[in-house]
Specification:
The complex is a heterodimer. Chain A contains twelve helices and no strands. Chain A is mainly alpha-helical. Chain B is mostly helical. Classes of the chains: A mainly alpha, B mainly alpha.
Chain lengths: ~260, ~280
Amino acid sequence: MSVLRVIVIGWLMHLKMLSRSWFNGVLGVIWPMFFSTSAFLMYGAGAPRRLATVAVGASMIGIWAAASTSGAGAMQHQRREGTLELLAAAPSPFSATLAPVTLAMSTVGLYSMVATVIWARLLFGIPLTVGQPAGFLGGVAVTVISVGMFGFLLSVSVVRFRSAWALGNVLEFPLWLICGFMIPLSLLPGWVRPISWILGPTWGVRAVHEAASGAVPWGAMGMALALSVVYGALGVWVSGRMLHSARANATLALS
Amino acid sequence: MTVAELAQGQQSVASRPVNFLRIFFIGGLMSYRALFTWLRPSVLIPTFLISPIFQILLFVYLGRAAHLASDSFFVIGDAIQFAALPCLFAMGNTIADERQAQTLSLVLATPAARLPLFLGRSLPVIANGFVVSVFALVVSAVMFHITVPLAAILPMGLAIVVCSVSCTGLGLVNAALGLRVRETAVTSNVILGLLMIFCGVNIPLAKLPGWMSATAAYLPLTHGIAAARSLAAGARPSTVAGQIGVEFLIGVIYASVGLLLLRVFENESRRRSTLDRT
């Protein structure tokens, strides 16, 4: 129960801090909208009948955008702020103090999602039609969780890499591409699809698309949640190993 | 020392050509190496070399899904757009990172003339923008089997250089904004995003709303990208010389506005004592 409390309170605190950041809060909303706007204009000019479908996926790219660059650099940020040692020394499990950071980052992506839906409706006249509202909200929630947990795994995996933010930055576009946010996976080369299947956001996006079209998305949601659990477990294991190594080698503040 | 005395000092320094050239070349290179914190393999390779390729992949596949244009349209547009990445961020860093290093007031207190001081900082950035763009263009052209006529290669290179110049001009405006806003990373990203939407990078200008395509005519990249696409399609260099000339002129205008804004904001920061505060 105390671990759950640490996660929930940590998530809330980080969400408040991120919401007041120009980089994460404001740019996090605006930056994905440049790409969703490009997609609206491109589909509007070339394939207008698919515009509504694309709008659903485009609205969600902000969730990954919020977690990729900032998530990869989450540990470095704590180090720069001088709080990494405090987190490492806290009696709570280290992973329970770090996972809320990336979960809060993916939650901030919801701001971008809402802004994009409003943007699409007001400027492009694209209505958001949802066949299964409960499934749609559930799909969005599992997308946030899967992105947050993937970001958590990413952040602890690249903790020894001083310029981790740059690595996260590089991963922004590939996941937009291979998770089917705006492009049907059938268009991509066959060898890409197995990679897409092991990415939780792929299933989250599929769930949201299915719910929007009126289908029941429980299968896709289940896959997204299952993969989130796998990412979480891997993240806990990796963070334990990394923390032990950093303590044993006295490199917590250096790497 | 008063502002008038400083200005007098700047004029006397500016009158010495050797000093001017020293500040322009050596000062510019030192500033670029010291301030542009992306000049490390761990940042430079993912940010300048890998990320552009992924953006090109994203838009090529988006273009195929939207049935909008050929692969070469997106490859050329996005590759050249990436010349703007170092041009905007590095120029923004010339102010923001000086402030972070607490050297901004020292730099602006020197009697060095502002023209070589800031223009010198832009020369390495232009070269950086060119290299990033050419790398992205060559790699993505190989990936998507895009060929260009042999005779078009040099003129396309010139178009990319001119685009780097014009984007650096806009970067100087961004640097000036750095004297007023703290988060130059935000302004750089916003400007980069606006260029991507407005300048015909991924959407043909004819398909944009009228006010957007009209605005695009006054922005960096628009004419350079159009010239490069025409050259790749087989147009003779003489037919696009006008577009490349307009692109260069736009760069000169933005650079002039940037230098002017730097002077205005610098003087205002001195009067209000806000140089290190903003």
